[in-house]
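Human: If only I could read backbone structure tokens as easily as an amino acid sequence. Underneath my words sits a plain record pairing an amino acid chain with its backbone structure tokens. Take your time, and here it is.
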Amino acid sequence: MSAEHARNWQQSWEETKTNPTRSTKPKRQVQVKVHKKAWITVGEKVLYSTFAVAMVVALFFAVSFSASADSLNRDVQNLEQQVKQQQELNANLEYKVQDLSNPERILRIAEENGLKIQNSKVKQASEISN
């Protein structure tokens, strides 16, 4: 035996005397898997994902509702404009009806067409409402 080998044997012999649980057989080392703690847990991921999907759906419906309300407002404005134009047209036509139903005008046209009116007064006919 060499001196180096003898010293190693002597040291291991002394360690065995002082520490009887340790044997000369080398212990098998067990690899321990270190689990790194996740920053966000699985439950939190599910909650955050559900919340994100709910927010996207809510925003989609809000935008859709806003677009339909805007479209409806534009339609209402167009209808109001058409009503205003029709009211102006009706007022103009009423004025023309009053102008054309003037008794003097009717008498003049009657005389131009050869009708003779004898001592009678021409009155404007009015509508009879039911």
In short: The radius of gyration is 54 Å. The CA atoms of residues 22 and 29 lie 14 Å apart. The chain has a mean pLDDT of 83.
